[in-house]
Structure formats: C-alpha cells, structure tokens
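Hello Y.,

Per our agreement to keep a running log of every chain we model this quarter, I'm adding this entry. I've kept the format consistent with earlier entries: sequence first, then predicted structure.
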Amino acid sequence: MKPILLLPDGVGVRNFVLGPFLSELSREAAGLILHPIPEANLDEYRASSNGQFQWREMSPYHETPLAATLRYSLAYAQMYWADTQSMRYGRKARLTGTWRRRLMMRTARLIGRAFASPPGIKRLDRWHYREVAKVPQVADYQKLFQEAKSSVLFCSHQRPLEILPAVLAAKALGIPTACFIFSWDNLTSKGRIAAPFDHYLVWSELMQQELLRYYPDVTPERVHIVGTPQFDPYADQSLLWSRDEFFRRIGADPARPLICYSGGDIGTAPEDPLHADILMGLVKSGRIKGRPQVLVRPAPVDDGARYQAVRRKYPELIFAQPAWLHTEPGNWARCIPTPGDVQFLANLTRHADVNVNLASTMTLDFAIHDRPVVNVAFDVHNPPLNGWPPLWEYYYRFEHYRPVVELGAARFARSAEELAEHINAYLENPALERAERRRFVDLEVGAPVGESSRRVVETLKRISR
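Predicted structure for the entry above:
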C-alpha cells in the first residue's frame, strides 16, 4: 500500500500523527504526507513515520471568485435542504466584510436556496469541481501522485477547502479516495463536505446514519465504522502519570478535588471568562464544598488573553494553556498540537474530578474516563451576546448534543446556583450518572478506545486493494 495522507489542519496532525495511527501504518505502508506543519518544527513529528513517508507541506490553494461563490452556494444549499437546528441559525447569520464579499454571500445564499435539493446540490457540485479542476495545483498533485505510485488517498478532515485540488487530482488518476469525518457535530452543524470522496470513515453507527441521511448519494458499503483515533492515546498506559505526579506538574494538591473548566473558542463561547469567574466565586465563597482547586484550559485556538482579568482576580486559579503551535494566530487550521499536549490532555481527563464546559466535545473526553460533567447553560449577559437565543435554547438543541441531554450523560446548570449544586453532588458521589455516561460513549464511539487507529489502517488496506 502506498497511501497519501492529506492532513489539512492541526486536528488531523493530533489524530493521525501524534497517536498510534502513523506508527501502525508505517509498519505496512510507505507514501506521502501532505501537512500544515512549518519546516522548522517538522522533525518532532517525523519520528513516528519510521522514515517510511515523504513529508510535503500542502500547496496553497487560491480560489477563483467563481469557485468561492459556488462553494458558498453549496454550503447554503446543504443548510436549506438538511435544515438542522444549527444550520437554520447558520444560514441566517449576519453577512460581514467588504461590499464585494457581502454581495458574493448574498448571491450564494440565493443560489443555495434555489438549488436546495439532492439533484440541485449534485449539479452545483459538478460545476464547482469543474471550476476547481482548472487550478494549477490539481496538475501539480497529479504529477506528484503518479511519481509516488500512490494507491489510496486518505484525508483527515472533510471540510477544509484546501483539500479539493488534491482529491480531484487523485480521482483523475483513478486513485481511490477516503475521508475521516473528524468530529461528532460536523454532519449536522457544519457546511457541506468539501470534496467528492469514494469512501467515508465514521465514528459510529449513529454517524453512519447521519451521513446516509444528509448525503443520499452515498451508499452504505462506502461508509466504514472505525471509531476515532483522537481518543486512542487515552488507552496508552505509557502516557499516563499517577495522580500525585499530575498534580505536582500543575502545582496542585492531590488531596483536594480538581475542577477543570474547558473553554471554547471566542466565537462560540464568548462568555467563558465570565463563567470561569462565577465558578471561582462559588469556590471562594464556600458554596462549592471541599476546597476544590480549579484549572482552566482554553480551547487550543484561543491564546488565553481574554482570561487575564479572572486570573488577576483569582491568583490561585490554575491556568493550563494548550501546548499548540500558533503558526497563524486565530486560524484553527494552522494551530498545531505538540506531543506534550496530547499526553497532558490524556492525564487531565483522567485525573480531574469534575469537568465544566459549554456544550463541548470535552463532555465526551471526560465521559470516556468516567469523569462527571456539568454543562454551563445560563447566560451572563441579558439579552445574550451576538443576538443569540439563550444558551439552553441554542447549543443544547443542536442535533449532535441532544443525546447528551436525552441520555442524561451530563448535568446542566441553568444558573450559578445550579452550577454549585451539580458540582457538589458530583464531588460527593462521582458515580452519579455513570451508566448514562457509558451509554453516551457507546453511542458516539463505535470502537473500543485504543483500537481505532488499527481499524483505520485495515480499512485503508481494503480500499487500496
């Protein structure tokens, strides 16, 4: 097998380079890795490929105005046709930017509404692919793939626009293409899949059902349930520290409970610093019992500057900035994790006693370790920021998050008082909702944690043949 690994962003690097996947693949294959890692940092990541792969930074892709209009038209067509809760908000979002950009987006919105059906979307797809096929990167990738005698292209993320020239090049050469649906919310809360893949690797039966529902041109035999490699490090005993060692590293007392507040990015969770401030006030006043310590971990794309006020107010707060390289600050795709951060997160999710977050994937990370989670479901500002509905009526109604609510896999704090009440209950009895957390993990992750990387390798071998 001679695969092409297409890793358009830092999350793909985390899932398929910093876990066991690449080592597994390197024992059975040699090929190309197209990636976003700066050359100066590349040596730290190459080691796991055992010299079996040629590493090349992805070529920049510059869209033509027509390609951009068609891409956004497809996104709107998908949002109008699929009509999920998140997509209803997305298609009504206020248009910003220059007048040319606003005009393009208004045009795309009109086109998308007119083509919002499976046949209409398929027609827009053809027009979009035909336009992108003209860019020089497609021919460059064709030459590269021919020279490498590539047998399969595997992409770690289905949405970045940069992936399309490479996928079109592979398809023009008859190389089978496969894509990993990289997160549990992407099919119901994001735009359309960016490229015409032959095969799709999904986390679970639930995600398979979503893919077949929202992409009716995809047939069941092209969808493969593999779990997700992002959680495989949680099963790697070599990465784990004892509780005493972890608490020593963060400067905390292992004899006292630890509450972890997991932040989101500024666009989706603008009140995170205010919620963290409320949490610290509840601890300091004694309304949360047991003298717990609080660790705040921002989202990797967040530089952490917005937490400065709460850190000054509460110097005892433990602040753990994710160890990711910000090669283009604020750009998720160019935010690259370091190996040390993968190990830190494996231990944080294992040793924290309670997690608090706003409708985050961290709910799943902590549930895997049977750690209870309280979701923040109250607004600090009234009316809510950004013209949104109240949090409880917004994120907790999205399709991907409904199982958390319906299964009772977390508790939901509709006020500061409820936040203290729920944390106190979990600190007193961590086993509360244990069965519900287990059912939630089993629903979302369709393979045992630690086995997903191997399943992806085996699936790619079958596709390659």
